[in-house]
Amino acid sequence: MGSIENLTQNYPMNPLEPEEFRRQxxxxxxxxxxxxxxxxxYPVRSQVSPGYLGExxxxxxxxxxxxxxxxxxxxxxxxxxxxxxWQSPNxxxxxxxxxxTAGILGEMLSTGFNVVGFSWIASPAATELEIxxxxxxxxxxxxxxxxxxxxxxxxVLQGTTCEAILCTxxxxxxKNLRQHGMDNIGKLVVYCSDQTHAAMQKAAKIAGINPKNFxxxxxRKSSNFQLCPKRLESAILYDVQNGLIPLYLCATVxxxxxxAVDPLTSLTEVAxxxxxxxxxxxxxxxxxxxCPEFRQYLDGVENADSFSxxxxxxxxxxxxxxxxxxxxPSALIKSLSTNPEYLRNNASETNKVVDYxxxxxxxxxxxxxxxxxxxxxxxxxxxxxxxxxxxVGMAKYFEGLVVMDKRFEVVVPRLFSMVCFRIKPSAIIxxxxxxxxxxxLLESVNESGRIYVSHTVLGGVYVIRFAIGATLTDINRVxxxxxxxxxHAGALIVDAQLASCEANKx
Length: 506
Description:
Number of strands: 11
Keywords: Decarboxylase, Lyase, Pyridoxal phosphate
Order of helices and strands: HHHHHHEHEHEHEHEEHEHHHEEHEEH
Family: Belongs to the group II decarboxylase family.
Protein name: Tyrosine decarboxylase
GO cellular component, one term: cytoplasm
Number of helices: 16
Helix content: 40-55%
Low-confidence stretches: none
GO molecular function: L-tryptophan decarboxylase activity; pyridoxal phosphate binding
């Protein structure tokens, strides 16, 4: 056995010395503050080529330590060029993943504590704060009391919507099979629309649902790409007549492609006739429903079994933070609980505490509630509402700019803070493919690095999505973005006209 002196000599490193942590922490905050101060100057979409980083970093890790200053210099010169800047005020692609001072500081505190809150006893505050903040948030959304801990339901902070859908699907599957027999898993059917996020199909695959029993029901432009209750019921009746078992419906408030809102009241009425579990996915648009003028889009949620939204999208809370509420927590627990001897404890044995390990896929879990708590307390309901309204107002302004330019059209009605638009077919002379022209417009705009937008296809039509939600975006950025779109569109239209004229010569 070695002496204390020998052990000290052999292990000289202290990777968490408080004063050195303080010094480096200040450096890191300064670095990030500087980054946010100049993020607008970077090309929004990274301009690097695949494999760029492997060409400029060493092939193996350093043997000797390097200073934080040296590492941060490499971040500046090597990593930042390969980042697509989601926090840029000129980021209008996908959906936002916005952040805030409160969200970052809450994340920092959570990371600093680094507790693993799989059960109540593992860190009581982590569990109890999560119970409190999910009930707070649920009340802000005016969710039915049955979704709150105070009403027999409850909320849990998952990583992403993918996890929330998978967990509820597994709970619905097992509940159904306990009734119909485990041998019937091949008969279970899952329903959604063709606008539902791909997370639903992925979850069905993982949960063991027969791919032939996945129903993505077609939507139509005439109904703004909502899931039609009559078409849903027709699909269910057809399956029942063929000996299959309707299991699960995913309805959406704010689809990814166009922010369409499915008619929850009518859909849940159909689903309940056939004992189908209804999950409402409001990943992006759910946050807006803290505003009274948007709460109508959740009408009918009282008849659903589960509901989720991503606070890391439009609620100033850093990735990852998906809020899931369920009416029947026992359904999750029966499917997802494990109770090995090494995790047994007196508190859990009393059944008076929540062990969140039984509400999710993973065993380990981070103290996510801290950052959501910071956001709720730092800004309050009033400021959070105004923040969301500001983005909706900017989207309305952008929509007006599109309408005023006769070369463009809004493809579907705007509901929240995203506008779907394209160059009109009538603006394109000759036999040019209208979808191809709009695709070229998207690529041209994004390659400029000045703004970043994304696309979708709705009813066969290629559409540009302009999603407002980055924390630093303001009305001036929106105006400048529209000028970028107009300039690139003008050049493309002229090129298309010239090409058409050349073709007509022959």
